[in-house]
Amino acid sequence: MGSVILEVGILLITGYIFGIIASKLKFPRVTGYIFAGLLLNPFVMEHIFHVDVIKGAFIHSSTVLTNLTLAVITFEVGGSLAIDAIKRLGKNVAYITFFEAEFAFIAVITGLFLFFHYTGLFHGNWRVDLAVAMVMGSLASPTDPSATLAVMKQYKARGEVSSMIMMVAAFDDALGIINFSIATAVSAVLLSGAKIEIASLVWDPTKDITLSIILGLVGGFVFKYLVKLIEGHDEDALMLPVVLGMLYVVFGIGQIMDVDSLLALMTAGAFVVNYCARKNQVFAVTDHVMELVFVVFFVVSGLRLDFTVLGGAIIISVIFVLLRILGKFLGVYVGATLSGASEKVKKYTAGGLVPQGGIVIGLSLLFASKPEFQAYGALIVSVTIGATIFHELLGPLASRLTLKAAGEI
């Protein structure tokens, strides 16, 4: 136990130091956190520095840490779905969000399926080719707005394109989780070798999504009344255990029910932001712990990178990044054209949607933790983290060039 506590301390301090270094180099802090995890990765430590700082046993049991932090992140995403904000956004954001998320989804599925099929990576088994391509495609939808936001603040960017980027980034995580739910349900059937039935492909993800939303609504409803109970009882001190406790109860029940805990938490966050009178206090709690959450989440993500499959994963990561960017640019153009958005929005919004991280790493880890997917989990986690590194390095530069071209810096 003493060793585990020491390892957690090393994880936090190293993440903090690398976050500061990344910040000084004009990169998002999360990039530093990922590199801290890569440095502490046992493969790197043993083969380059010949020391053993973080034990393999800690990494194998780190799923709990990942889930604890991912619960907070997903709840925060749900908190961005305020009804008033949705009404104000209009059809431009709705069209652009839908098409950029789904075009990225489709582009990655198509491209990776063809790559797997013609390279014979999975020995010509089309079921495996399609299953892995579908999961990777679902991970292409979400956008991480943190890098773009950092650029906007640094250069005091304001304007139509800046606003559109942030609003779209807030909403495409929801589509990403829905795509992930569908993709994992379909891939489970494909990998099991069972006969593919259209009815089950439609029913299974529909049931999972519906039950997840119901769980989230019930959790949000209970949340609302739990918060009311602490009125007049040192609210600032008691709000933290209530909020975190409720998040973990919803997440845990979702796992027991075998439904999508992340979608349930996103729904709970949306319920709280729209129907809880103390919503500002609730989200103040998650805002307060968010940097700690990011340190743990991203450092652990780097720790879990499997270098034994990285050789092939690098090529797949590059293909994934290129296909995803292609899908984002085409999707923004189509969505903006159909909704009648301005030429500036049509030309420049996609550049701010390049950064990716956060939730997609958690989703890939969640996929890898399920027994039926363990044969392919390590590859998908490694590809996702590799792609995240590319995205976090390319993202800030793409965002700056985009906003400068739009005349908003």
Written overview of the protein:
With 409 residues, this protein is mainly α. It is 81% helix and 0% strand. It has 17 helices and no strands. Helix 1 (2-24) packs across helix 2, helix 5 (63-78) crosses helix 16 (359-369) and helix 10 (198-229) runs antiparallel to helix 11 (235-257). The longest helix has 37 residues, at 83-119. The chain starts with a helix and ends with a helix.
Order of helices and strands: HHHHHHHHHHHHHHHHH
Query: Largest sheet at a glance?
Result: none
Strand content: under 5%
Mean pLDDT: 85
Our Rg estimate from Cα atoms comes to: 21 Å
Key features?
globular, mainly alpha
Give a concise summary.
The chain has 409 residues and is mainly alpha-helical.
Topology readout:
Elements: H1 2-24, H2 29-40, H3 42-49, H4 56-60, H5 63-78, H6 83-119, H7 126-138, H8 146-155, H9 160-192, H10 198-229, H11 235-257, H12 261-275, H13 279-303, H14 310-339, H15 343-348, H16 359-369, H17 374-405
